[in-house]
Amino acid sequence: MSAGACDIDALVHARLDQMAGDLPALGVAVSGGGDSIALMHMVATWAAGRRIMVATVDHGLRSSSRAEAEAVARQAAALGLPHRILTWQREEAVSGNLMADARNARLQLLSQWARDNDLAAIALGHTADDQAETLIMRLNRGAGVDGLGAMSARRHAREMLWLRPMLEITRQRLRDWLQARQLDWIDDPSNDNEDFERVRVRKSLKATGWSVTAIADSAAHLREARDALTHYVLQACADARFAQACMDLPLTALQEAPSEIQRRILLASARWITGQPYPPRRAGVANALAAVLAGRRVTLDGVLFHPRRDHLRIMREPAAALRAPPAQELWDNRWRITGLAPGQTISALGPDNLANTAWRDRGFSHDQAIASPAVYEETRMIAAPALQDHDIYAATPLRTATDFRRLVMAH
Ligand SMILES: Nc1ncnc2c1ncn2[C@@H]1O[C@H](COP(=O)(O)OP(=O)(O)OP(=O)(O)O)[C@@H](O)[C@H]1O
């Protein structure tokens, strides 16, 4: 829903009440741009006895960045709000994408700052324009309902709760609000740099006269559709069992689900097994789904889907586990093994060592046991800690049922 004729401060206060009404302390992330400056003022008038703190990240990417952060500090001081400048100590570029690295570092610094100061959440100044621009950029990449759905107003990430109370308000209304109060903000010159796709989209939205609020509303509707899909995926998986880095799903739950829910179950379960940040490709998922529904074993992106009597067993593909590089503690992005001495490594148990273990006693299937971790000294297998209790070594799967729920909801 977009903000109509009502006062925008009243709307932001109402959203803050809903999202953060019960929190004793809140952080506000303020870049110095118009959106987050407006947010800071609105949070200040909402505070009513709550502890509010403000932070600005100085990325050091422009010569004026320090002075801009100090300008925010002065505005915060005038409102009686404590302010901190967090400086990005840039090491080597991590990803080669400077903007992505800067964003990552910013969120990390803000999260750490909030935790250090016992702030339960951080408010951000995203607006309806951000929603609309993002939706258009994603349309151009062929995104589906997940990519097109609006940003969430309340989200847990990086050990912090992030709040976006201004998602329904346009940037123009915030600018008008600031001007009416003679409040200053900083116009970052990169906001005018057409090398950035977002800036080009912003300008073409203006040129076409398209309604930012209408497009942001579309994003919100798509978000609701996505949330409904998530709900049904979780419902279909309610009786799934998760154990030993493996998932057992009642086959009827899969067979009775609509095809889009079936597809999502396969996507989420594959990512739960491999821990990969990106889902497998659409065509691969469709083929795997057809095979599973026909009762056939199939592999997809290093995951084995094995229909057995009344359930579908979803586990690491043994060949993929055998290819996983040897490790010291975290192995195959699935297991944590403790107790290794120097010179010892973890690799897959593999078929040759199977006879030396009591794999059936733990309820492992043959494939699952082959793909389970074993401790080696050179080429000699010393222990299979997932398959039998051991005095020295212990094996714990990295992901649990809760992680599966998180994966479904995050996507
Ligand atoms: N350098 C920064 N320091 C603190 N918070 C920031 C910084 N950059 C962005 N943010 C937070 O993230 C939100 C969204 O970031 P985005 O890059 O879209 O905003 P912006 O264009 O830099 O500035 P604004 O949203 O304040 O006009 C901001 O509204 C603000 O809450």
Write up what this structure looks like.
The protein is α+β, with helices and mostly antiparallel strands and 411 residues long. The chain has 3 domains: 8-227, Rossmann fold (3-Layer(aba) Sandwich), CATH 3.40.50.620; 239-317 and 401-410, 2-Layer Sandwich (Uridine Diphospho-n-acetylenolpyruvylglucosamine Reductase, domain 3), CATH 3.30.465; 321-397, no CATH class. 43% of the residues lie in helices and 18% in strands. It contains 15 helices and 17 strands. The chain has helices spanning 8-20, 34-46, 65-78, 98-116, 128-139, 145-148, 171-180, 197-208, 212-236, 251-255, 259-274, 282-293, 318-323, 366-370, 401-410; strands at 25-29, 51-58, 83-87, 121-123, 154-157, 160-163, 241-243, 246-250, 298-300, 303-308, 311-316, 330-331, 335-338, 344-348, 373-377, 380-383, 394-397. Strands 3-2-1-4-6-5 form a 6-stranded mixed sheet, sandwiched between helices. Strand 2, helix 3 (65-78) and strand 3 (83-87) form a beta-alpha-beta unit. Helix 5 (128-139) crosses helix 9 and helix 9 packs across helix 11. The radius of gyration is 26 Å and the shape is elongated. The model is unreliable at 1-5 (pLDDT under 50). It binds adenosine-5'-triphosphate. Adenosine-5'-triphosphate (ATP) binds at residues 29-31, 33-36, 56-57, 106, 124-126, 130, 188. Adenosine-5'-triphosphate (ATP) is lined by residues 29-31, 33-36, 56-57, 106, 124-126, 130, 188. ATP binds at residues 31-36.
